[in-house]
């Protein structure tokens, strides 16, 4: 049976500010990318999200980003590879400690927002991130888009990788995500989202905004936890995949 991971970016509340529907989304996904306090989250939110994920039987992942709470980590920053390395070690290490305190360990690391998108095209940044993950725990899986510098850097250093696709984002002709500031970047229609997911998982292809069909590898599907339809998307995607004989499972259970 074909297997695919279903992940969501969670733990993104901060202090008195609540973002997302973590308690409702967690029971529906197989892997959780938990914010580590730089772009979102704080120590109390990290602990609460880890505990909720463990209770739900969901695999844990660190979601490190740039130190940009105001911009939610989605603004580009001029960060040197050495600084990026330190940021990732710091954040992954913090979440790993919460995982250990909860009697478990991290499965993966998925960079957030601008860090994720910039590393996809910047080889030096991608290498720094991969090295940071490897140095914290060489058994961790790195989540990134297939064919990017991030995947190349991770495979070169010996990390396992999960090639990620997106249920609620559109694509450009080069396989990268459409920047959020451009029209059509976000997919808000659930039928369109499900059609895109099924095409990526079953056929290994996605149709870009231009209409060009491009190949993709789908090990894990992301639904953004802060989206207004995150819960609805996740419910319908699970149902559609099951109807097509695809099993939902954490990436660590089937990736080699």
Could you characterize the architecture of this molecule?
The chain is an alpha/beta fold and 256 residues long. It has one domain (3-253): Alpha-Beta Barrel (TIM Barrel). Helices cover 39% and strands 18% of the residues. The protein contains eight helices and ten strands. It has helices at residues 22-25, 43-56, 81-101, 113-121, 123-136, 149-157, 190-203, 230-243; strands at 3-10, 31-35, 59-63, 106-109, 141-144, 160-166, 205-207, 213-215, 220-224, 247-248. The chain has a seven-stranded parallel barrel with strand order 1-2-3-4-5-6-9, surrounded by five helices. The protein has a two-stranded antiparallel ribbon with strand order 7-8. A hairpin with a 5-residue loop joins β7 (205-207) and β8. α4 packs across α5 (123-136) and α5 (123-136) packs across α6. It is globular. The two termini are 16 Å apart. The model has no long low-confidence stretch (mean pLDDT 95).
Quick overview:
The protein is of the alpha/beta class and 256 residues long. Helix content is 39%, strand content 18%.
């Amino acid at each position: 049976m074909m297997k695919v991971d279903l992940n969501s970016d969670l733990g993104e509340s901060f202090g008195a500010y609540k973002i997302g529907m973590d308690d409702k989304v967690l029971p529906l996904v197989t892997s959780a990318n938990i914010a580590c306090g730089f772009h979102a989250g704080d120590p109390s939110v990290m602990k609460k999200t880890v505990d909720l994920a463990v209770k739900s039987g969901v695999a844990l992942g660190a979601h490190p980003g740039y130190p940009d709470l105001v911009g939610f980590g989605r603004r580009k920053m001029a960060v040197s590879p050495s600084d990026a390395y330190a940021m990732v070690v710091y954040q992954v290490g913090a979440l790993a400690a919460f995982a250990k305190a909860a009697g478990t360990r991290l499965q993966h690391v998925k960079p957030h927002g601008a860090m994720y998108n910039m590393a996809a095209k910047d080889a030096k940044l991608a290498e720094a991130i991969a090295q940071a993950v490897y140095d914290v725990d060489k058994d961790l899986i790195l989540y990134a888009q297939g064919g990017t510098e991030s995947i190349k850097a991770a495979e070169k250093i010996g990390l396992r990788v999960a090639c990620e696709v997106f249920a609620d984002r559109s694509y450009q002709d080069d396989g990268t995500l459409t920047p959020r500031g451009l029209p059509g970047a976000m997919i808000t229609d659930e039928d369109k989202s499900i059609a895109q997911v099924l095409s990526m998982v079953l056929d290994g292809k996605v149709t870009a905004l231009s209409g060009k069909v491009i190949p993709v590898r789908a090990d894990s599907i992301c639904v953004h936890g802060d989206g207004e339809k995150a819960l609805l998307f996740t419910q319908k995607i699970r149902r559609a995949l099951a109807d097509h004989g695809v099993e939902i499972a954490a990436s660590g259970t089937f990736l080699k």
